[in-house]
Design a protein that fits this description.
The protein contains one helix and five strands. The protein is mainly β. The protein has one domain. It has a five-stranded antiparallel β-sheet. The mean pLDDT is 90.
């Protein structure tokens, strides 16, 4: 998994797989899911990320016990 934030366009992107994107769909305003040719989610984009999260450049990784 890879997480990127592009400050210039204010988009937070979470990439689950390097599989090529076949289709993208804006499920809800500002939330875009990317799908492979089999309909599996391979990525997620959050538009206007700084309006959704105080600091989109900060990531907390948590594994519960």
């Amino acid at each position: 998994m890879k997480i990127t934030y592009d400050q210039e366009v204010d988009i937070l992107r979470i990439i689950f797989s390097d599989t090529p994107i076949e289709e993208s769909d804006e499920e809800k305003p500002g939330i875009i899911f990317d799908y492979d040719e089999h309909g599996n989610i391979v990525g997620l984009e959050i538009l206007d990320a700084s309006k959704q999260e105080q600091n989109p450049r900060s990531v907390e990784y948590y594994i519960p016990n």
